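Recap from last week: sequence in, structure out.
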Amino acid sequence: MDTFSSRRMFRIFREDQKSLIVAMDHGSAMNVFPDLLNTQRIIEEVVENGADAFLTTFGIVKSFWRSMKGTGVIMRLDGGVSSIKSEGKSYNQLFGVEDALSLGADAVACMGLPGTEDEPNTLTYLSKLAAEAHLWDVPLMAEMLPGGFMNKEMHTPDLIAQAARMGVELGADFIKTDYPKDIESFKRTVQGVFRPIVVLGGSRSDDPRDLLAMVKDAINAGASGVAIGRNIWGYHKPGLMTAALRRIIHEGASVEQAAAMLQ
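Predicted C-alpha coordinates:
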Protein backbone atom coordinates (compact mmCIF):
# COMPACT_ATOMS: atom_id res chain seq x y z
CA MET A 1 0.00 0.00 0.00
CA ASP A 2 1.46 3.36 -1.08
CA THR A 3 0.22 5.82 1.51
CA PHE A 4 1.94 8.72 -0.25
CA SER A 5 0.48 8.23 -3.74
CA SER A 6 -2.10 11.02 -3.46
CA ARG A 7 -1.12 14.37 -4.98
CA ARG A 8 -2.36 16.09 -1.86
CA MET A 9 -0.30 13.83 0.40
CA PHE A 10 2.71 14.66 -1.77
CA ARG A 11 2.08 18.34 -1.06
CA ILE A 12 2.57 17.57 2.64
CA PHE A 13 5.31 14.91 2.64
CA ARG A 14 7.27 15.65 -0.54
CA GLU A 15 9.83 13.43 -2.28
CA ASP A 16 11.43 11.72 0.71
CA GLN A 17 8.07 11.04 2.40
CA LYS A 18 9.06 13.24 5.33
CA SER A 19 7.54 16.54 6.43
CA LEU A 20 8.34 19.59 8.53
CA ILE A 21 4.90 20.90 9.45
CA VAL A 22 4.67 24.24 11.25
CA ALA A 23 1.67 24.17 13.58
CA MET A 24 0.01 27.58 13.63
CA ASP A 25 -3.47 26.72 14.86
CA HIS A 26 -2.96 27.79 18.48
CA GLY A 27 -4.50 31.26 18.16
CA SER A 28 -8.00 29.86 17.76
CA ALA A 29 -7.88 28.66 21.37
CA MET A 30 -5.05 30.27 23.32
CA ASN A 31 -2.96 33.42 23.70
CA VAL A 32 -0.21 33.61 21.05
CA PHE A 33 0.97 37.13 21.89
CA PRO A 34 3.57 38.53 21.68
CA ASP A 35 5.14 35.79 19.53
CA LEU A 36 2.66 36.02 16.67
CA LEU A 37 2.11 39.77 16.65
CA ASN A 38 3.58 39.85 13.15
CA THR A 39 2.03 36.69 11.76
CA GLN A 40 2.89 37.42 8.14
CA ARG A 41 6.58 37.93 8.91
CA ILE A 42 6.77 34.64 10.82
CA ILE A 43 5.05 32.75 8.02
CA GLU A 44 7.38 34.19 5.40
CA GLU A 45 10.44 33.45 7.52
CA VAL A 46 9.64 29.78 8.06
CA VAL A 47 8.65 29.32 4.41
CA GLU A 48 11.98 30.78 3.28
CA ASN A 49 13.82 28.37 5.57
CA GLY A 50 12.21 25.19 4.37
CA ALA A 51 8.85 24.51 6.04
CA ASP A 52 6.94 21.88 4.06
CA ALA A 53 3.45 22.60 5.33
CA PHE A 54 1.33 24.51 7.82
CA LEU A 55 -1.25 23.11 10.22
CA THR A 56 -3.45 26.11 10.67
CA THR A 57 -6.90 27.68 10.81
CA PHE A 58 -9.56 28.95 8.45
CA GLY A 59 -8.71 32.55 9.34
CA ILE A 60 -4.95 32.18 8.87
CA VAL A 61 -5.34 30.54 5.46
CA LYS A 62 -7.90 33.13 4.33
CA SER A 63 -5.69 36.03 5.40
CA PHE A 64 -2.14 34.85 4.63
CA TRP A 65 -2.35 32.34 1.77
CA ARG A 66 -0.06 34.49 -0.41
CA SER A 67 2.71 34.30 2.17
CA MET A 68 2.43 30.52 2.33
CA LYS A 69 3.45 30.28 -1.33
CA GLY A 70 4.18 26.69 -2.33
CA THR A 71 3.82 25.05 1.09
CA GLY A 72 1.18 22.47 1.87
CA VAL A 73 -1.79 23.52 3.98
CA ILE A 74 -3.55 21.35 6.56
CA MET A 75 -6.65 23.12 7.88
CA ARG A 76 -7.99 22.33 11.34
CA LEU A 77 -11.69 21.62 11.26
CA ASP A 78 -12.47 21.41 14.97
CA GLY A 79 -12.16 23.50 18.10
CA GLY A 80 -14.70 25.60 19.94
CA VAL A 81 -12.62 25.73 23.14
CA SER A 82 -10.39 28.41 24.64
CA SER A 83 -7.84 28.88 27.38
CA ILE A 84 -10.07 31.61 28.83
CA LYS A 85 -12.63 29.05 30.05
CA SER A 86 -11.22 26.88 32.83
CA GLU A 87 -13.73 24.01 32.99
CA GLY A 88 -16.33 22.20 30.93
CA LYS A 89 -14.48 22.46 27.62
CA SER A 90 -15.63 20.30 24.73
CA TYR A 91 -14.20 20.06 21.23
CA ASN A 92 -16.64 20.29 18.33
CA GLN A 93 -16.45 20.13 14.59
CA LEU A 94 -16.53 23.71 13.28
CA PHE A 95 -15.85 23.36 9.55
CA GLY A 96 -16.26 20.75 6.83
CA VAL A 97 -13.97 19.41 4.12
CA GLU A 98 -15.62 21.65 1.50
CA ASP A 99 -14.75 24.70 3.61
CA ALA A 100 -11.10 23.67 3.54
CA LEU A 101 -11.19 23.03 -0.19
CA SER A 102 -12.75 26.45 -0.77
CA LEU A 103 -9.52 27.96 0.61
CA GLY A 104 -7.25 25.64 -1.35
CA ALA A 105 -6.17 23.45 1.58
CA ASP A 106 -4.39 20.19 0.77
CA ALA A 107 -5.45 18.26 3.89
CA VAL A 108 -7.65 18.60 6.96
CA ALA A 109 -7.13 17.86 10.64
CA CYS A 110 -9.08 17.15 13.80
CA MET A 111 -8.56 15.89 17.35
CA GLY A 112 -9.07 12.41 18.74
CA LEU A 113 -9.04 12.29 22.54
CA PRO A 114 -9.47 8.75 23.87
CA GLY A 115 -9.55 8.50 27.63
CA THR A 116 -11.17 11.91 28.13
CA GLU A 117 -14.74 13.09 28.55
CA ASP A 118 -14.45 14.28 24.95
CA GLU A 119 -13.72 10.76 23.68
CA PRO A 120 -17.18 10.00 22.19
CA ASN A 121 -17.50 13.45 20.65
CA THR A 122 -14.07 13.66 19.02
CA LEU A 123 -13.96 10.06 17.85
CA THR A 124 -17.44 10.37 16.33
CA TYR A 125 -16.71 13.46 14.26
CA LEU A 126 -13.24 12.11 13.39
CA SER A 127 -14.97 9.11 11.77
CA LYS A 128 -17.48 11.26 9.93
CA LEU A 129 -14.74 13.58 8.67
CA ALA A 130 -12.71 10.58 7.50
CA ALA A 131 -15.61 9.44 5.34
CA GLU A 132 -16.23 12.95 4.02
CA ALA A 133 -12.54 13.52 3.28
CA HIS A 134 -12.33 10.18 1.47
CA LEU A 135 -15.10 11.25 -0.91
CA TRP A 136 -13.07 14.33 -1.85
CA ASP A 137 -9.70 12.51 -1.88
CA VAL A 138 -8.46 14.85 0.86
CA PRO A 139 -6.06 13.45 3.49
CA LEU A 140 -7.21 13.63 7.09
CA MET A 141 -4.72 14.09 9.91
CA ALA A 142 -5.97 12.91 13.31
CA GLU A 143 -4.26 14.35 16.39
CA MET A 144 -4.52 11.37 18.72
CA LEU A 145 -3.72 12.14 22.36
CA PRO A 146 -4.67 9.63 25.07
CA GLY A 147 -5.87 11.65 28.03
CA GLY A 148 -5.77 14.86 26.01
CA PHE A 149 -3.35 17.73 26.62
CA MET A 150 -3.68 17.94 30.38
CA ASN A 151 -3.31 14.31 31.49
CA LYS A 152 0.19 13.78 30.20
CA GLU A 153 0.70 10.87 32.57
CA MET A 154 -1.42 8.96 30.05
CA HIS A 155 1.06 9.68 27.23
CA THR A 156 2.71 6.30 27.77
CA PRO A 157 4.18 4.25 24.90
CA ASP A 158 1.33 1.71 25.06
CA LEU A 159 -1.49 4.27 25.18
CA ILE A 160 0.07 6.41 22.45
CA ALA A 161 0.31 3.30 20.26
CA GLN A 162 -3.30 2.38 21.01
CA ALA A 163 -4.58 5.89 20.32
CA ALA A 164 -2.63 6.15 17.06
CA ARG A 165 -3.98 2.80 15.90
CA MET A 166 -7.51 3.91 16.77
CA GLY A 167 -7.03 6.96 14.58
CA VAL A 168 -6.14 5.01 11.45
CA GLU A 169 -8.82 2.39 12.16
CA LEU A 170 -11.35 5.23 12.20
CA GLY A 171 -10.07 6.40 8.82
CA ALA A 172 -7.26 8.93 9.33
CA ASP A 173 -4.62 9.10 6.60
CA PHE A 174 -1.86 10.20 8.96
CA ILE A 175 -1.46 10.72 12.68
CA LYS A 176 -0.09 13.48 14.87
CA THR A 177 0.79 12.40 18.39
CA ASP A 178 3.25 12.76 21.23
CA TYR A 179 6.64 11.06 21.06
CA PRO A 180 6.95 8.76 24.10
CA LYS A 181 10.75 9.15 24.30
CA ASP A 182 11.23 5.41 23.80
CA ILE A 183 12.75 4.54 20.44
CA GLU A 184 12.01 0.80 20.48
CA SER A 185 8.37 1.16 21.50
CA PHE A 186 7.85 3.91 18.92
CA LYS A 187 9.32 1.67 16.21
CA ARG A 188 6.62 -0.89 17.05
CA THR A 189 3.99 1.85 16.99
CA VAL A 190 5.08 3.00 13.54
CA GLN A 191 4.92 -0.59 12.28
CA GLY A 192 1.53 -1.28 13.81
CA VAL A 193 -0.13 1.96 12.75
CA PHE A 194 0.67 1.47 9.02
CA ARG A 195 0.11 5.14 8.19
CA PRO A 196 2.55 8.07 8.55
CA ILE A 197 3.05 9.48 12.04
CA VAL A 198 4.26 13.01 12.78
CA VAL A 199 5.23 13.96 16.32
CA LEU A 200 4.21 17.14 18.09
CA GLY A 201 6.61 19.59 19.70
CA GLY A 202 4.76 20.07 22.97
CA SER A 203 5.33 22.97 25.34
CA ARG A 204 8.14 25.39 24.68
CA SER A 205 11.57 23.88 25.30
CA ASP A 206 14.03 25.80 27.49
CA ASP A 207 16.96 24.23 25.62
CA PRO A 208 16.56 23.97 21.83
CA ARG A 209 18.97 21.03 21.80
CA ASP A 210 16.37 19.01 23.74
CA LEU A 211 13.87 19.61 20.96
CA LEU A 212 16.40 18.74 18.25
CA ALA A 213 17.37 15.55 20.07
CA MET A 214 13.72 14.51 20.44
CA VAL A 215 13.11 15.07 16.72
CA LYS A 216 16.26 13.15 15.78
CA ASP A 217 15.20 10.17 17.92
CA ALA A 218 11.66 10.24 16.53
CA ILE A 219 12.89 10.28 12.93
CA ASN A 220 15.34 7.47 13.66
CA ALA A 221 12.45 5.48 15.13
CA GLY A 222 10.39 5.85 11.96
CA ALA A 223 8.40 9.07 12.33
CA SER A 224 7.50 10.68 9.04
CA GLY A 225 8.12 14.16 10.38
CA VAL A 226 6.99 16.66 12.94
CA ALA A 227 4.19 19.16 13.55
CA ILE A 228 5.77 21.81 15.77
CA GLY A 229 4.37 25.22 16.71
CA ARG A 230 5.56 27.18 19.72
CA ASN A 231 9.08 25.79 19.54
CA ILE A 232 9.35 27.31 16.05
CA TRP A 233 7.32 30.54 16.02
CA GLY A 234 8.06 31.13 19.72
CA TYR A 235 11.80 30.83 19.18
CA HIS A 236 13.62 34.17 18.91
CA LYS A 237 14.76 33.27 15.37
CA PRO A 238 12.00 31.12 13.84
CA GLY A 239 13.77 30.85 10.50
CA LEU A 240 16.90 29.38 12.03
CA MET A 241 14.90 26.84 14.03
CA THR A 242 13.03 25.86 10.88
CA ALA A 243 16.30 25.39 8.99
CA ALA A 244 17.80 23.33 11.83
CA LEU A 245 14.80 21.02 12.01
CA ARG A 246 14.77 20.66 8.24
CA ARG A 247 18.39 19.50 8.28
CA ILE A 248 17.51 16.70 10.70
CA ILE A 249 14.29 15.66 8.97
CA HIS A 250 15.32 15.85 5.32
CA GLU A 251 19.12 15.67 5.38
CA GLY A 252 19.80 13.31 8.27
CA ALA A 253 21.92 15.85 10.12
CA SER A 254 23.09 15.15 13.65
CA VAL A 255 21.84 17.12 16.64
CA GLU A 256 25.22 18.86 16.79
CA GLN A 257 25.09 19.85 13.12
CA ALA A 258 21.56 21.17 13.46
CA ALA A 259 22.31 23.02 16.71
CA ALA A 260 25.23 24.77 15.03
CA MET A 261 22.73 26.46 12.72
CA LEU A 262 21.15 28.20 15.73
CA GLN A 263 24.34 30.07 16.61
